[in-house]
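User: what does the whole thing look like in 3D?
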Amino acid sequence: MSRKTPKPSAPPPAASPAAGAPRHRGRSPRATGSVTLTDVARLAGVSPITVSRVVNRPGLVSPDTAAHVQDVIERTGYVPNLLAGGLASKRSRLVAALVPSITNGIFVEAVQAFTDRLWDAGYQVLLGLSGYPATREDALVAAVLSRRPDALYLTGINHSAATRKLLLNARIPVVETWDMTPTPIDMLVGFSHEAVGQAVARHLLARGHRAFGLVWADDARALARQRGFMREVSGAPAVRVDVATVPAPSTLTLGRQGLATLLARGTPTAVFCSSDLLAHGALEEARARGIAVPSALALMGFGDLEFAQHTHPALSTVHVDRASIGRRAAELVLARIDGIAQGPSVIDVGFIIVDRGTT
Amino acid sequence: MSRKTPKPSAPPPAASPAAGAPRHRGRSPRATGSVTLTDVARLAGVSPITVSRVVNRPGLVSPDTAAHVQDVIERTGYVPNLLAGGLASKRSRLVAALVPSITNGIFVEAVQAFTDRLWDAGYQVLLGLSGYPATREDALVAAVLSRRPDALYLTGINHSAATRKLLLNARIPVVETWDMTPTPIDMLVGFSHEAVGQAVARHLLARGHRAFGLVWADDARALARQRGFMREVSGAPAVRVDVATVPAPSTLTLGRQGLATLLARGTPTAVFCSSDLLAHGALEEARARGIAVPSALALMGFGDLEFAQHTHPALSTVHVDRASIGRRAAELVLARIDGIAQGPSVIDVGFIIVDRGTT
DNA sequence: CGCAGCTATGGTAGCGATACCAGAGGCGAG
DNA sequence: CTCGCCTCTGGTATCGCTACCATAGCTGCG
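Assistant: Here's the predicted 3D structure for the full assembly of 718 residues, as structure tokens:
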């Protein structure tokens, strides 16, 4: 207990939150007005490093000292400066997550799960919105890396050469999500969109459908599902497929328009939509036109959003455990940061076809 | 723009003798392996401060020098370190936004608009998820402030004394949102939830309803709407109100259950739900029971989410310009950071009652 | 011709924290 | 009584960047 009473030159006691007190010479040329670790140390009569330990690794400090320092911290309202801490330690305790959009519900659950898990481990998540065509991804990755995150979460696996180079240079754990590839940048948690397309095609073919319509958004993952679907149906005889492409992001209204387009050009017996939102729109359009679902027209979506089980009839779709993607991505990242896991990791979370009332 | 194809063999920090070279003595005790501003300066034959200017304030540097430095930056793959920059300049170019949840669609559009606007102004947004009962808000505010954000966006106006103290000590612009009060911490963009409740009450009273049911989530803003509703109907004669409370966050399923609860206890002619999601659930429940909407039962929601105009009948609700809240919050924050605006600002964005098919 | 008043650039001194290693006690063992 | 080891604490040297001020050329004006 080598604790000393504050030195005579100590700044005014706890009355004022110790703001703007001169520190070095007669005047402080760049006073900030906020309490620093050094201020706390002086008031507590210990060295700065001890205060740092109380905050970050309490186990290394004796209970008495810790309690006293903690008391001073609370009295002064000291808030550590992680910019300085991160600079000195090279650990920002920040993890960046890049998502196309948060207004589209499909990705947010994964991000929320990812964030929750990392928060519990002492990390904060910096969210970057890359926009739908991922136009901003390069700039966003650069901007985000300038904060020196300890790891990066990416949505999707399609990244420009410039982005990949930035990521490799950064030498931090990177987890890609929502897709599947044998050659991830680093780690990967997702599922095969082609397999989804194939599975849905098999499902609909087995029900006897041959005249297909697709209402399809033009983003990369949706197109992968389309490829899988196309490949599978192309093996069957007498199959016709018409595609109504709509711009991402999907909306219910675009779904209505998409079905309208298909019906203007032909009479599909089964329509597969690239998302539940589009399928919901198509369902509305069918209802508005008096088309019986599923007897005259079968409908399938993708995503299994909450509303899917509450439409009339309830929407058949493809279920993906979205929260699990975020959770497992977080686990991978943490294992890598802690140095437990080395080398690439790929996790396929799979998917389930949910057969409800529209097929 | 880019004069050279970024060859993979270009001086990556690893093997390059220049980039990661020892700096001070014979060996660099804490070499990081990443390119620093000083490295770029040495390679370009200019001083560090000039490189800093090229990156941050290109106007101050002659075009020739700028081009040359820019070239070196691209060749080396230099990524500025904003931890260091923020520490030195006391501007983190980070703005924190605290939201209860992003899986609940109601808040995300405002956040997205806020983020987009600030991105254009050179800021990044750090998203903090406070959880629904705001249990984590104190810890979250402290954690977020340790990154020294230049401003803070809060959802709601109910904050603990500890939180308020932290915010005041931080001395940064704070904008609260989604609510209205004469005494904001700093700035405020929102609308009066009590006024919403009153307006809906007047609307339903005018249609002759006297037997009301509420399916209500137990969060603070929802309760403010309830107070407004109660106050207004209490002025009318022969009115009965029954409330089925459900835990936040709202879901469609909870809406179904909520209406079931009300119907087990009485026969309301009009049910007002604290959110569109709950109202959608109530609508489903009514359909399942064969109750005619709106003739036997009128329904209203709140929020005007996209699906509201596509239910059957289309959902009457209260519309709020959510994106506008985020956009205007961003404008306030930027004006304050730039020192243009001083003193408190309060913006009431209002709301609109949307009368569709369920009333 | 001399002196402002630019513009373009550089030197110095931190910002607030942590890494690294050293040192001071305390305590049981030889 | 001395040694070795463990626990707790402190001193020093950075981390990578920018604020602040100084300086060197140059232009234009009286």
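In plain terms: The CA atoms of residues 54 and 66 of chain A lie 6 Å apart. The mean pLDDT of chain A is 88.
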